[in-house]
Amino acid sequence: MSEDAYTRPVPEPSRDTRPYWDALNEGRLVIQECAGCKRLRHYPRPVCDVCYSMDVEWRQVSGRGSLHSWTVAHHPFHPGFKTELPYVLATVDLEEGVRMIAQLRGVAPDEVAVGLPVQVAFERATDQLTLPVFRKREGK
Ligand SMILES: [Zn+2]
């Protein structure tokens, strides 16, 4: 680990979420698709909310979306986030119809707006883990 080793808490992949994290490590965003009713769902979980099927497939999605809501963090609830303050935590509606939460990078807190077009990006956090973040999407 380098001197600026990652000091923030990180998610721990589980049996249900491993394919999601593996894909992020490869620079791809995948979402669970119910093998029974074909409904997409996110966050990853073992059972479909609609038909209760436990059969799941993973679909690669565009990573394009628009900002649904956000919060600006001014207080470090974990010391590892101290150097990033203030940061924007975004709730994004992906084009494929599911909602996900990640940090929004490169947009000043006072420039954030509902509907802002965004694109997922991938940030290596540790040797084993890549985190999704969103960036403002230029053009269409
Ligand atoms: Zn289903």
What do you see in this structure?
This protein has 140 residues and is mainly beta. The chain folds into two domains: 13-60, no CATH class; 62-140, Beta Barrel (OB fold (Dihydrolipoamide Acetyltransferase, E2P)), CATH 2.40.50.840. It is built from one helix and eight strands, in the order αββββββββ. It has one helix at residues 18-25, and strands at 30-34, 40-41, 56-60, 64-73, 87-94, 99-105, 117-124, 130-136. The strands form two sheets. Strands 4-5-6-8-7 form a five-stranded mixed β-barrel. The chain has a three-stranded antiparallel beta sheet with strand order 2-1-3, with helices on one face. Strand 7 and strand 8 form a beta hairpin. The longest helix has 8 residues, at 18-25. It starts with 17 loop residues before the first helix and ends with a strand. 16% of the residues are buried. It binds zinc ion. Zinc ion binds at residues 34, 36-37, 39, 48, 50-51, 53. Zinc ion is lined by residues 34, 36-37, 39, 48, 50-51, 53.
Strand and helix layout:
Elements: H1 18-25, E1 30-34, E2 40-41, E3 56-60, E4 64-73, E5 87-94, E6 99-105, E7 117-124, E8 130-136
Parallel strand pairs: 6-8
Antiparallel strand pairs: 1-2, 1-3, 4-5, 4-7, 5-6, 7-8
Bound molecules: zinc ion.
List keywords for this structure.
single chain; 140 residues; mainly beta; OB fold (Dihydrolipoamide Acetyltransferase, E2P); 2 domains; five-stranded mixed beta barrel; three-stranded antiparallel sheet; globular; binds zinc ion
